[in-house]
Amino acid sequence: MIAEIAATGAAFLVAGGAHYAARWPESQIFGRTIVAGRNPSEWALTYDDGPNDIHTGHLLELFARYNVRATFFMMGSRVRLRPQIAREVAAAGHCIGNHTVSHPKLVYTSPQKTWAELAECNAILADTLGIQPKLFRPPYGARRPDTLRIARKLGLTPVMWNIMANDWQVFDAQQQLLLIEQGIARNTLRQRGSNVLLHDGDNTTLGADRSYTVKSTELLLKKYAGEDANGSIRFVTPLEWL
Question: Among this protein's residues, is 48 annotated catalytic?
Fold first, then answer.
C-alpha cells in the first residue's frame, strides 16, 4: 500500500513538473527561451494574435506619438486576411514575430504539424513583408522540447513573457494597467526587465474588440514615455535581449 501511494505521488510530481515545463512562461526546463533582460528599466510591449481591425492601427498611432517600438507576434492566417495592416506594422519599424498559422497548442501537435505551422507562417511573413522573422512565440506559451528544436532549425528564437495583463478576460483599461504595474514591481525586485504579454487580436475571431488593450497601452505610455516621464524607462524589443 505504501509503495502504491509513493508511486502515485511520484507520478503526480512528474506530471506536475511536465506541466510546469510545458506551460509556465519562465520555465527553461524544456529549453532556453527569451523571457527578459537583466535591466529592470527595459520593458518590452508585445502583442499577439494580430493583425486585427481596427485596433492594430490604433496601437501604431500610439507608438508613433510616443516614439516607442513594440513587438507583434502575428498569426499567418491573420496576415493572409489583413496583409495591408501587417505591412503598416512593418513599415513603422516594429518587430514582427512568428505566432504560427492557426494558433494550435503545440504541446499536443506532432513534430510534422509543428514544423508546418512555423514554416508556413515564416513563408507568409516573408511573402507579405519581405522579412524573415527571428522571433517565435508559442500560442498559449505551450511548448515541449521538440517545439523549441524545430523553432531553432527554422531560425527562430522562442520568446515568452513575465507579465500578463489578462486582456482576453479583463475588459477594463485601469485594471490592465494595474496588473502590468504590479508585474513590473515584481520584476524590479528580482532585478529583471519586463516583457508584457498583450493582444491586438484574437485567435478565434477577426475584428475582436481590443479597445481596452489600446487604452491601457495609452495609459502606460502616457505615464512612462510621455512628457511628464523622467526618461528612466527604455522600451525595447526582445531582439535586444538575444
Answer: yes
- Reported as a single tens digit per residue, the pLDDT across 203-218 is 999 999 999 999 999 9
Domain boundaries along the sequence of the chain: 34-241
Torsion of CA 156, 24, 141, 39, to 10 degrees: -50
Q: Indicate which residue of 48, 49, 200, 202 is catalytic.
A: 48
Rg (CA), the chain: 18
34-241: which CATH topology?
Answer: TIM Barrel (3.20.20)
Catalytic residue among 94, 167, 199, 200: 199
Residue with cell string 524545430: 150
Q: Write down the number of H helices and E strands in the chain.
A: 8, 8
Tell me the pLDDT tens digit for each residue of 124-172: 999 999 999 999 999 999 999 999 999 999 999 999 999 999 999 999 9
